[in-house]
Amino acid sequence: MIRQVRTHVSQNEPLLFELSSPGKVGYQLPELDVPPVDAAGTLGAQNIRAEIEGFPEVSEVEAIRHFTRLSTWNHAIDLGMYPLGSCTMKYNPRINELVARTEGLAWAHPYQPESLAQGALEIMARLEAALLEITGMDAITLQPAAGAHGELTGILVARALLASRGDPRKKVLIPDSAHGTNPATAAIAGYAVENIKSNGQGMIDVAELARLVDGDVAALMITNPNTLGVFEANIRAIAEILHAKGALLYMDGANMNALVGVVRPGDNGVDVMHLNLHKTFSTPHGGGGPGSGPVAVKAELAPFLPIPRLKRDGGKWALDYERGQSIGRVRAFYGNFGVLVRALAYIMAHGGAGLRNATLDAVLNATYIRKGIEAHYDIATEAPSMHECVFSDARQAKRGVHTGDIGKRLIDYGFHPYTVSFPLIVHGSMMIEPTETESKRDLDLFIDALVSIAREVEEEPETVLKAPHSARISRVDEVRAARKPVLRWRPAT
Ligand SMILES: *Cc1c(COP(=O)(O)O)cnc(C)c1O
After folding, report:
1. CATH node for 353-481
2. The domain 94-349: what is its CATH number?
3. Residue 441, Cβ density class (10 Å: 0-12 exposed, 13-18 middle, ≥19 buried)
4. What pTM was computed for the model?
5. Atom of ligand 1 nearest to the CA of 151
């Protein structure tokens, strides 16, 4: 008989607030060696807070242990594969961190005069040039703070161009496979959203598109490869249909991990696009940021890009605010500079051939997984997979096991779940994106896990339905967590 241990330090970590005991501090200050100042007298009593209600008082080691223990509850890319489709959870080389923490860059002040920030501006200029080369576009802004923010910037820039022609138009077309941020962007930019159905191969139906594009359409927002991991092979024909009616082609470039060094959107008729530097160009993400969503455009749209823009002035870099047609600022200062540094470090460390190789490996890895599990799960489309492969739980659902259950069971095997139930056009979808940074050994372990789970579904579905068994917290009430989130800790009274 094994004695049940009720509370174990790392099994049931309390809230930091619950660890608090009055008077404990986690810091030590040196003796005051300047004359004391009466803070209330100097700043005004109304600006001095005597107490913060419920503020946790803990020692340094308690704070450190608390957060270190919590960190071990999480899955992380440094721990194992993180095949969360659409998110490009690649391993981010440590050299990027080292470079981003270079003192002169990490401590550069946004109000530093241009003459003293030439190095930082040079980094931005080099990154702009590299991204233009990679995308085949003409001009770019590094300002937007994430992919969705880039989308909004890009659509506002497109709208500004159309408005300058006297006709901003009314609608944006969006395929049913699009990321949810696309319709949200179009709506916030003031457009009505019209849906386009995908065809049997998971691609945009070109005939249907030709039927839908009229003088009211401002743009089509396309993701390429799309969220099924399928390359939109008709992209040039699609661009021609739009351009013939005076509409623009927006490309959501969040999936550029499948294209870098192989295909340039600018060569395929794309007018405006965003990149997710935190995905494709290697910044740790998933914890809520920071990110970076540069927007690249064709020359015709360049005058409308946000200010300030970089310019050369007497052999030095300067910031140009005098751009009358600009949509204005979309963010304070110059974007998330640290992410820009990481992206340039990543690009320069790889070089052109290395970037291309990463793309080929990303596609190879996704295809390898597809082949490895194809006999056990239903593939969503016969079209070749690019950087991710999408399956459905149709076969397992007959035994009462769904995509969410299989994802949770993966946790017991040491993997982060794939993306569950997205894209929406595939019922019970399982979206798997391994990225290029996984070794064959890890891919084999992952395939092995999914094949093993498929067998469990046949032989002992309860095991899968009750998973995870190894995690500190198993099944939570997801609906309640979403509908009635507890966002504020209140001291016990
Ligand atoms: C991740 C993603 C986005 C949104 O990017 P954020 O940086 O999370 O705002 C948009 N579209 C696609 C296809 C994506 O994968």
Report:
1. 3.90.1150.10
2. 3.40.640.10
3. exposed
4. 0.91
5. 10
